Structure formats: structure tokens, C-alpha cells
Amino acid sequence: MLPNTTETLLVRGCCRMLVESYRRCRRSSIAARTDQRHTAVCQPPSAFRRSTTQGSLSLDFSVYLCLYLTNLQQLLYLCPPHLRLDASTAQPSWTVAAHRNLAVEMAGQSDPHLNLFSAEEVEFVAEDEMVEIVPNMRMDSLHLICGDYGPFYPQIATEVPLWLAIALKKRGKCAIRTPEWMSVEKLTQILEAERESQGSFQILPFHYVEISKLLFDHARDDVLDMYLVRSLIEDIRDVRFHKVEASLGSIDTRTSAVKIKDLSAMEVNIVRPFVIRALQAIYKHGNPELVPDQDRMTNVQPQGHDHGQRRPLRRR
Amino acid sequence: MPSEMTSYYDIDDILAEEELVSVVFQKAVNGVGIDPSSETDSVESGSKVELPFWLAQELHLRQVAVMGLPSCFNQRTRLEIQADAAFVDLRSRCPFFYEFGCKIAPLVGDRTIGSWLLSTFKSRYKEVLTKAHTAVFAASSKYLALLSKEETKMYEAAQSSMTAFKKWRMGGPRFQKASFLSRKRKSSD
Questions:
Q1: I want to staple A90 with a disulfide (CB 3.0 to 4.6 A). Which of A85, A153, A214, A268 is the partner?
Q2: What is the predicted ipTM?
């Protein structure tokens, strides 16, 4: 199941482009949908159409893209490229390996800072999370490449991805229901637990930073106690980030890996460039000198002795 | 070795090899003008010369000269780093401290350098991380002067990702100024 190199290269080359065009496609299809007074059937650009035969290649790409983007979520294991994960410590699926290959190749070539995703790109990934909306208009279901949503009836809640919710919200077609974890009680609980437990992190949605920011930006009137909620989330983020820094202080030299559970996407993204470099340096200084140096020393000396012993043999 | 080939075009790798090393010639060499003030173009055996690492390495491998341990890896530096690793000025000692250490360790035959570099790095990198994320720009320049080039890169990587995040958090429609506001004021003036 391992993707071969050409596929990896193709995905690598197309990834950024795909993200761009995918984003544009989403926007344009929504615009078409709402501007034509809900009559036209939503048509994504042909490259993303599901049913056509000519679209098979680009469909492969989009599948890879999806895999690629979702793998970010699994990859809380930040490993240097040289290190092979053994089956006991990591998910043995090829996706992790593929992701790491991609990450390393992309990072090494295009970006000098080894920063794989910008904050905007992480936000883009977060827009695929589902939220509940209460529409105030009637509309048939939307058939999009990421799934079918709707039909929409006034005052009946449905689940849509965040990007769709925001697009509808901007046009005044719905109200977004704040997720359960974004209530004041829940957040105060989490903040307290976060402060008490030094080693571990509380379980929050993987994209809590981005989701909360998007909701504060686009749906301020739907969030109850917005200022309190916002400051609570800021506090939680600060506490968690200090914990991240503290736990990064103890990188295991033997395995050259860091394992931190229940980190969120943005937190991983912030520390990634530093951690990759630190791990690479630790790997570099930890392994090659200590082991081969001694080998070389022991190898060289016996050879010298051999020469000394052979010469008299030849003379005889 | 593949690892050497990947850094072939790396400018930092080239610069790291510019570091001066003291070298003792084992053989007399003719036709080299290492010292411009000397009368003859020859070097006698046993003379001690400071050469850049890339040249010293070749001479060392051909057994023309023997490389001495550079001052940045001597006992005094080690004691200083043992005392308080985070605030030792590595840049003035050797800007490419780790890279140079890796290159010179197998040639000098000092096995402790490898593990010592690792322990130095481990005791310093955490300070780099916390400083990069918290320090104000003006205050950080003093600390930056202590770091080796490798650490500076890490510092910049950490800082740029943090500033990118802060920029993203502050951005968006919330803080954007409505365009008609500024226009109105101009017309009234």
C-alpha cells in the first residue's frame, strides 16, 4: 500500500495548487448557489466532479490530498526523517510514513523555515470540521465533493462543515450553534483541570483554536458571553502552550522522538519548525559520532597489525 | 557518504570549514607559500601553522600534518559549559560550533567530543525555545549574540512561527478598518 515515489512527487507538486483551487471551487460553488436564488444545481469545477471519467486523475489527487491533510491529525509524533518508527510505538499505516516523507521533502525544498503549514492553512483545514446550523431559508441539499449536505428547512438544525456555515452566515441565511465545548462552564472546567494537571493535556477538539477564532470573527452574535469565552480560550491556550514548552524540555535522546498526547493542530504547528530542527540536531549528534567513531577506531588498528604480520610472511 | 553529498551546496557547510585549526607539519613541504613573510616557499617539518579546516583536513588525511584540538573544544570551554551551558558565548568561540565539532571529531580522535556536543546542545536548546517565544525583540538581541549559527537558525524558526501565529490571531475581519471611514475624514478636511 505504500505510495511510490512518483505519486509522492505528484502529490507534493500539486498539493498547494490543489488547496488553492479547492478553496476557489468551494467559494465559487457557494456563490453560484446563493446568487441564482437557490435554483441552479451546485456544480463544482470539472476537475472536482465526482462522476466524470476524465476526472479520475484529479480525483486521485484529491483523495491523496484528503489523506495528506488528515494525516496531520495523526502525526503528533514528531520524528526526524532518519528515524524509523517501529511498529510498537506508532501506527503502522503507510499514511504516516507517506506524510512524513512529504513533510520532509516539502519542508526541505520550498520553505527555509521548515514550517509545513502556515496558520492560514491550518485554519483552512479546520474549516472542514462539522458544526450545527439553524437555517432560516429553504434549500435543496447541496451535492459537494466533500459530501452531501441538507436539505435545509427553516428552524430545523442540520450539520454542515464550518466553511459552509460561515458562507451561509455571511449571507444571513442561518445561525450557527456554538459547539458544546464552547460554553463558559465547560471552558472554566477545562481551564481548571489544565492548570491542575501538569503533565497531561485536557481533551479539546483538535482545531479548537481555529474554530473559536472563526466563530468569533464571523458569528459573534451567535456566541453567548463572547468576551468571557474568548478570554477563557486565550487562557487555556496560554496554559497549554507553557506545558508544551515544559514537555519539550525532555526529548528522549535514545529514540530522538517526542510524544505529547492531545495536542491541538495549531499548537503542533507553532512548535513544529523548532522541534524538527532540534530533533535533527539531537539525532545528528547522538548517533553518528558515538557509534561509528568507535568502530572506525577498532577497525583501523587491527588492519595495521595485519599489515605488520603479513609482511614477514611474504618475505619468507 | 550521502550525508556529505546533501550538504555539498550548503553555504553554511562551506563556511564551517573555514574555521582555523592549528596544524603541526610532519614532513617538510616545498613550494607552498603559507607564510607570506618567510623567505623561502617551503615549510619545515615540525612547524606549527594555523590553517583553515578544509586544507588541514586534506593534509591530515595524507599524513603530511597532524591536527591539534581547536581552542573551542578544550578543557576550559568544557568546564564553562558544564557550569552554565545556556549562557556560554558560543558564537565568539566558533560560529559553527556543532557542525565544526562533528567534522573535527573523527580526525582528532577524541571520542568524547560527540557526546559532549550532544549534552551541550541538550542543555541549551530549551533556553532557545523559551527565549524565542517570550522575549521582546530588543531584549533578545543580547541573547542572540551568544548563540552559534545552528542555534540562531532554530531561534529564528521558532520565533517566525510564533509571530506568524500571532499575526493570524490578530488578523481577520475583526480588526480591519472600514474603508469608508478614512475616506469620509479626508473629504471633510
A1: A85
A2: 0.77
